[in-house]
């Protein structure tokens, strides 16, 4: 579970493990992750986790620093209140063969719960606490 609360005019994001991050509070000069950035990070992290799992499963020697992702959410012109695309660029260990790299990208995309949830347009239910 992820929680958001405000402390000293700052949005604080926490998880069950006690980790915290600072979220954007809406003030133009404020620091913190914006919701778009958190969405992009969730997709990118999910993809890299899948890549790591497959590399480990296949017994491929790699350095953790050689696996990375950049995600960019965008909207089509005229579309408001939702992103229409999320583009992910994966960085994979350089020593991998081309066919295996292609396989990794497909597996990362297919196995990403966050990406699959977004693609399927999950329902969101909001209630008062």
Q: Can you describe what's shown?
A:
The protein has 2 domains: 1-33, no CATH class; 34-129, K homology (KH) domain (GMP Synthetase, Chain A, domain 3), CATH 3.30.300.20. 34% of the residues lie in helices and 23% in strands. It has helices at 35-57, 98-111, 113-119; strands at 2-7, 10-15, 20-23, 68-74, 85-91. Helix 1 (35-57) crosses helix 2 (98-111). It is globular. The two termini are 14 Å apart. The model has no long low-confidence stretch (mean pLDDT 95). It comes from Kurthia populi. InterPro entries: KH_dom-like_a/b, OsmC/Ohr_fam, OsmC/Ohrsf.
* SSE string: EEEHEEHH
Fourth-tier CATH superfamily name of the largest domain: K homology (KH) domain
What quaternary form is this? single chain
Structural class by SSE content: alpha+beta
User: Number of DSSP helices?
Assistant: 3
In percent, how helical is the residue content? 25-40%
Shape: globular
What is the percentage of strand-forming residues? 15-25%
Supply Rg: 17 Å
CATH class of the largest domain: Alpha Beta
Quick one: how many beta strands?
A: 5
Poorly predicted runs of 5 or more residues? none
The neighbouring-strand order within the major sheet is 1-2-3
InterPro entries: KH_dom-like_a/b, OsmC/Ohr_fam, OsmC/Ohrsf
EC number: 1.11.1.-
Keywords: Oxidoreductase, Peroxidase
Protein name: OsmC family protein
Give a concise summary.
The chain is built from three helices and five strands; from the N terminus they run βββαββαα.
């Amino acid at each position: 579970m992820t929680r958001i609360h405000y402390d000293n005019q700052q949005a604080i994001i926490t998880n069950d493990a006690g980790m915290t991050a600072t979220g954007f509070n809406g003030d133009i000069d404020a620091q913190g992750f914006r919701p778009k950035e958190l969405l992009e990070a969730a997709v990118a992290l999910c993809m890299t986790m899948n890549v790591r799992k497959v590399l480990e499963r296949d017994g491929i020697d790699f350095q953790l620093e050689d696996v990375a992702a950049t995600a960019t959410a965008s909207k089509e012109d005229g579309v408001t209140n939702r992103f229409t695309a999320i583009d992910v660029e994966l960085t994979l260990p350089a020593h991998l063969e081309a066919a295996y790299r292609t396989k990794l990208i497909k597996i990362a995309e297919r196995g990403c719960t966050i990406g699959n949830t977004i693609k399927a347009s999950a329902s969101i239910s909001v209630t008062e606490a």
